[in-house]
Amino acid sequence: MHVSVDGLAATPDRQLSWVHLDEGVFDYADDQTDNADTALYGRITYELMDSYWPTAADEPGATKHDIHHSAWYNNVEKVVLSRTIKNAHAKNTRFISENVPAEIQKLKEKSGKNIIMFGSPGTVRSLLPDNLIDELWLFINPVILGKGIPYLQDVKTHTKLELVSSKTFPSGLICAHYITK
Q1: Full residue range of the structural domain in which residue 25 is found
Q2: Alpha helices in 79-130 (DSSP H)
């Protein structure tokens, strides 16, 4: 999850132009996706991702990351938490609208690689109270937005975290990897 120093996940109009991305950040993120066979999204993040990644590798000037992530996206199982999209038919995608904690627990118990979640602050907030998030990867961008969508607004649970690692990029972006305790 990309956040600003003041803990915001997006501007009030959901813009992410302030997020710092470069080849080093993409390579770091690609290492994470290589270890995941399931992507978990909230509806808004899913719609954003699905509007770009299925064909990103086919675009003129596609970068190494575009090609790599597009291939991963097209092959990975996608699970979308949504109360509004229930029966959409998208490749390798299923939608969960009811019994979310039980469904996510079943997903976690499946054999395979990791489950990875991009963005989706509302989904993170909804899964924390049931201890369904094992790790947080926060990409802290060197910017203060002042107002916008808080990453962990109204979290209803106390969750202790342990810092496992951190990496500072030349741009000043910091990736902090936490596990939940």
Answers
A1: 2-180
A2: 100-109, 121-127
